[in-house]
Design goal:
By secondary structure, the protein is α/β, with parallel strands linked by helices. 43% of the residues lie in helices and 16% in strands. The longest helix has 22 residues, at 115-136.
Length: 347
């Protein structure tokens, strides 16, 4: 953690120009908030297909006027190469130093229902962004990979050099991203780092809709007194990763000077396994302080969801050794902060 704190101080003294794709999304808007508070210049690219303008409004309320004026938004689509090229150089800020690529269709069930759009955004869009980044000669391309790439591999914890067969179109697209990044590194002297996220959660994660992630969905449902559904018997487990840990991994990856870390993929997680039943109890215990009736809520179990894996746990030693990644938030600490945010935001 000391290494990350040192990095943030260095960035404050020597600001850079960053491009965030998917800037209006959950992870993108949190990256934006952090970078603006560090005095950075940020270009954002989003078509608002899954991101939300209210996320950017929230960020504008959390930074000062000068910081907000250091952000420039391009309403564009990564499937359009012209939008990608346009985002690489701002007339006022100058040429982009680092790209944090987070624009994607990020749902396993959605990819099963509509594999064509998922492929179009996550593969064609990715290729457009990496081409534009190559041509602009950016310093580092950091992209959102996914733990779904481990597929049907049964071994725990998950280590980066051993994967199974993909279980969904979404997983296929994220694996293709890694292959493209590796090919660009080999053929164009391109500098990229992929971050295999494990169930990232935190403020501004959308609790609504058919594809909402489990943590915001359950928090909102409990507060509203709605039914809570668990797919399977509840013993399915995940390695839940608080948003601040993901932000740390992005900034460390973008700026690392360790040649052994470049053109690699890294697990981004806390390194702790939590079952869905366990998650339910943690959220329930945190919320019952504010709502007496929450103690009476019992989950409703239903069929296991197609495309999901039974268990997930990350080995984060590679990121720790090469990036000096040190996650700051356990699931309990992260949930405490997340729930406080939703209690304010949902009222």
């Amino acid at each position: 953690m000391d290494n990350y704190i040192k990095l943030t101080k260095e960035l404050e003294h020597n600001p850079k120009i960053w491009l965030i794709t998917g800037v209006a999304g959950f992870i993108g808007s949190n990256l934006l908030e952090t970078l603006l508070k560090l005095g950075q210049k940020v270009v954002g690219l989003d078509n608002f297909s899954t991101g939300h303008k209210h996320n950017l409004l929230k960020v504008s309320e959390l930074v000062n006027e000068d910081q907000w004026n250091s952000f420039y938004l391009i309403n564009g689509d990564i499937r359009n190469i012209e939008d990608c090229n346009k985002s690489m150089n701002h007339p006022k800020f100058g040429a982009v130093d680092y790209v944090l690529h987070h624009a994607a269709i990020g749902s396993v069930p959605r990819s099963i229902e509509d594999p064509s759009t998922t492929n179009d955004v996550n593969i064609t869009g990715f290729l457009n962004m990496i081409l534009a980044s190559r041509d602009a000669k950016i310093k580092r391309f950091v992209y959102a990979a996914s733990s779904s790439t481990y597929g049907d591999d049964q071994d725990l914890p998950k280590v980066e050099d051993k994967i199974g067969k993909p279980l969904s179109p979404y997983a296929v697209t994220k694996y293709v991203n890694e292959i493209y990044a590796d090919v660009f590194a080999r053929n164009y002297d391109f500098s990229a780092i992929g971050l295999r996220y494990f169930n990232v959660f935190g403020a501004r994660q959308d609790p609504n809709g058919a594809y909402a992630a489990v943590i915001p969905n359950w928090i909102a449902s409990m507060i509203k007194g709605e039914d809570i559904y668990i797919n399977g018997n509840g013993e399915t487990s995940r390695d839940f990763c608080y948003i601040d840990n993901a932000i740390q991994a992005n900034l460390l990856s973008a700026t690392t000077e360790n040649n052994n870390a470049i053109n690699q993929v890294f697990n981004v997680a806390f390194g702790e396994q939590t079952s869905l039943n366990g998650l339910f109890k943690i959220i329930q215990n945190e919320l019952k302080i504010n709502y007496d009736n929450i103690s009476k809520i019992k989950p409703i179990y239903r069929e296991f969801r197609t495309g999901d894996v039974l268990h997930s746990l990350a080995d984060i030693s590679k990121a720790s050794n090469l990036l000096r990644y040190t996650p700051s938030h356990s699931i309990k600490k992260g949930l405490n902060e997340t729930i406080r945010w939703y209690l304010r935001d949902l009222h």
